[in-house]
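User: These chains co-purify. Model them together.
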Amino acid sequence: MESIKDPILQIKDVSIAYGNNKRAVKNVTADVAKNTITAIMGPSGCGKSTLLRAINRMHELYKAIHVTGEILLNGENVLLMPPTEERRRIGMVFQRPNPFPTMNIYDNVLAGYILNGIKLSRAEKDEIVERNLRNVMLWDEVKDSLTKRGTFLSGGQQQRLCIARSLALQPDILLMDEPTSALDPIATKYIEDLLVQLKNEVTIMIVTHNMSQAKRISDYSMFMYLGELIEYDDSSVMFTNPKDERTRSYLTGKMG
Amino acid sequence: MVRDKNLQIRIFKNRLLYIVVCVFSALTAIPLLAILGEVLVRGWKQLSWTFLTEATPNAFEAMMAMSAGDPMPGGIANGIVGTFVMLLVAAVIAIPVGIFCGICLSEFKGNWFATVVSYITDLLQGTPSIIIGIIVYIWVVVPMKGYSGFAGSVALFIMMLPLIIRSTEETMNILPETLKEAGLALGGSYWRVMLQVMVPSAFGSIFTGILLAISRVIGETAPLMFTALGGAAISWNISRPMSAVPLMIWEFFNDPNLQSLIWGASLFLLTFVLCLNLLAKRIQKKWKV
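Assistant: Joint model of the two components:
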């Protein structure tokens, strides 16, 4: 693959260990291009979610996990930033939709502001809520029930609400950890279409088990195996002509 | 198809076990229903508006009423007020302390400090209430030079604490981890996520725990004997001795003239506890995480 110019995110020699010497991710180096969708694929246990979660430092919640190496966001090492600031710039959407159960739809979109203690005027709030719900194509469905709880929505709607919640803080990067694996095919299709539209605003990195999904929506693809980054290329190249034998056997269904 | 020769025996065993389970559950219910029935039959005649709004009659009034064959004058209002005030003060101290402690135990599981606190909580829960009463007597009543409702509150606070800690801890443990991660992923600071996302999500169960803690300690008598002492007049002053409904039951028992008031007071207490429990059940259902 030709090298990426002006990468928004640079992963440099990142290793992640659970406990003392169980290395889940081994010396991964990769640049991520701005306003693209990068898919991270690989069989279960290959370290793809672990790598993704290192980028917004979710691992710091768990003492036994150690991250080494550098992760640069626009040239700044995120591992050295205050975590609250860093996470505002790198949003995350999880496998299962997890709107905050005690907040209504309106407050769920604003949750990032609420949790950061940022005061907004009523007009600003209304504007942020409407813009972000329109962004995830949820506005027309929920505009009359903004005061209902987020958990009252369907799974697919909840996941879109969670995406809106992350986008509301206008992050540079949106990390998605198998965001459609708990959803039915129609809701999945909806989210995929949405992601392709959203990449104009935000750089997306998505972990997925679903190869056809990666093929449909991603610009670049990473293939990880046993903690190593085996292959990283243009998705069009990776899916038609993978270089590594392991990538080929994964993509053809012989492995994984 | 595999033929099962023992099919009839298995069906019989199955039925037998079912009957045994039903019989034993019924046996558990019998004592409870018997207690309720006894208290209801003996106590309902006492219940009236004045029973709830007037203080205990003095021995002379009681004796006069008894010899004239009139219904007993006065009521248990002094006990109700005392119970209410002492419980309120105890709950106001115990709720924040218990919730924070419960969060700590669930968040820092495995940490030596949390382990020690967890053991202490268990021990505290198992400590006989009379011992708590004596300790509070030494710690509060002696230095303050007198029995007081406040000392009673302290004793009840100590008894409520482990219950609130445990219910908070257990609720926090069953909340999905991704809820916390989602809050942190939005850049929320740890304590903001705990207080604005996790605790509200757990609120229903924590509140249920609080109600159950109240219903557990509302009938405590022993620790109040050493601390609140009791009093015949309605008093809202927490720095003075105070009465409480269970204390009054004990006093009525010891005074031959007042014995007929025992059952009304018992019925009141029992009804209150039952209501608290039913309320707790409903809230738990409604606020299920």
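Chain A touches chain B at residues 56, 58, 61, 83-88, 91-92, 94-96, 98, 100-102, 111-112, 114-117, 162, 165-166, 169 (CB under 8 Å).
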